[in-house]
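Deliverable D2.4 — example input (structure tokens):
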């Protein structure tokens, strides 16, 4: 396909920087047709399911997309809010708050959110920003731990958009922040606040989204990064090794995924006589189906059924001010060298005398 005509933004125009907070995505509605669209895009991504394409296409379209949409739609319906899917509501709010924090610190930047699957899509948001004259873009994934299945797929979407454009902005990607002190401290504060109100349970379970075990042996750093996050959080909380557990949730399909699995671990704990647990999902920065339905509803039920007495779910970071501050700090570090404050960028100063002075002329 030939390249389409594009607005030109290079002549005499100051550089404009945008930050795009990219999350996984979510269906538009909790209905089977919306789920079919969403799951077909998501599960059709070769980064997510690494089975040879022809074989997988048959399984996906022949079986999964016939059965799963209806079941998943019912689960989504159980967590849907008047404003929409929790994942989208929180991600949008985070982008709005991040815009506010960066603005207060004097940065002149656009802040948007985009979804890897579903809407608003990464290409749609990049097109809008390009129309607005954006010349630099920082892609900030909502995933603290790097995985080929998620982080790299966001990279693919941005690169695929770029492959069809003539005049590209400068790109930067934040690959990970699993050990960022601001992120860890925001998690620790969440846990401490919970303990203040409800007391401390016998065990803290830190549940991360799983990935197929194969990806670990093939070199995906995700498993190690989850372990580091868990260790740093435990250290920050002063928790000894026998008071917390790291588990992996959301297994999909028949293959072996990273272990230990969250729900079977909680059931075993209940059977072994553990009466109280606190559960946090540190890898999810926004509450979503996987935390609200799978953990707060299903895993709770399983633990109580197995003999547990109290199951406390600790909310994701969502719009916690400590978290947004950590995001702003993280963003600022990645913006270094890109002049985003008027004083940093002589060409952004309107007055020619001001500009000359900033460029080093003597008054
Ligand atoms: C099929 C394989 C999957 C891999 C690999 C995978 C990795 C992965 N996912 C997240 C974060 C989220 N996943 C969410 C939902 C979800 N995940 C899968 C499958 C895989 N995920 C499916 C099929 C679904 C859809 C829901 C369902 O039908 O059960 C969500 C929630 C989305 C929402 O709308 O609320 C998140 C978030 C990570 C971080 C990750 C790898 C590290
Ligand atoms: Fe997932
Ligand atoms: Fe799930």
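Example output (designed residues):
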């Amino acid at each position: 396909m030939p390249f389409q005509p594009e607005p030109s933004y290079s002549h005499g125009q100051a550089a404009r920087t945008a930050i795009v907070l990219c999350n996984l995505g979510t269906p538009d509605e909790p209905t089977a047709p919306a789920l079919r669209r969403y799951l077909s895009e998501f599960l059709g991504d070769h980064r997510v399911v690494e089975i040879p394409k022809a074989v997988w296409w048959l399984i996906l379209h022949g079986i999964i997309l016939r059965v799963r949409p209806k079941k998943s739609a019912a689960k989504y319906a159980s967590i849907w809010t008047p404003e929409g899917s929790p994942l989208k509501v929180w991600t949008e709010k985070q982008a709005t708050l991040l815009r506010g924090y960066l603005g207060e610190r004097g940065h002149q930047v656009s802040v948007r959110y985009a979804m890897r699957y579903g809407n608003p899509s990464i290409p749609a948001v990049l097109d809008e920003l390009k129309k607005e004259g954006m010349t630099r873009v920082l892609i900030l994934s909502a995933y603290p731990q790097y995985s080929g299945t998620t982080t790299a797929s966001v990279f693919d979407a941005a690169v695929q958009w770029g492959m069809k454009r003539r005049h590209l902005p400068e790109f930067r990607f934040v690959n990970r922040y699993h050990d960022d002190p601001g992120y860890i401290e925001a998690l620790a504060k969440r846990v401490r606040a919970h303990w203040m109100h409800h007391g401390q349970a016998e065990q803290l379970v830190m549940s991360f989204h799983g990935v197929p075990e194969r990806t670990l042996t093939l070199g995906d750093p995700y498993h190690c990064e989850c372990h580091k996050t868990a260790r740093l959080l435990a250290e920050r909380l002063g928790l000894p090794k026998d008071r917390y557990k790291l588990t992996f949730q959301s297994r999909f399909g028949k293959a072996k995924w990273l272990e230990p699995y969250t729900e079977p671990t909680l059931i075993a704990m209940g059977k072994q006589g553990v009466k109280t647990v606190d559960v946090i999902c540190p890898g999810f920065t926004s509450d979503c189906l996987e935390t609200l339905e799978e953990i707060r509803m299903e895993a709770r039920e399983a633990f109580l059924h197995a003999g547990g007495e109290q199951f406390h779910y600790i909310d994701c970071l969502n719009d916690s001010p400590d978290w947004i501050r950590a995001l702003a700090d993280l963003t600022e570090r990645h913006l270094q060298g890109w002049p985003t404050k008027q004083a940093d960028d002589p060409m952004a100063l309107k007055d020619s005398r001001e500009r000359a002075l900033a460029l080093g002329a003597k008054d």
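The CA atoms of residues 272 and 307 lie 8 Å apart.
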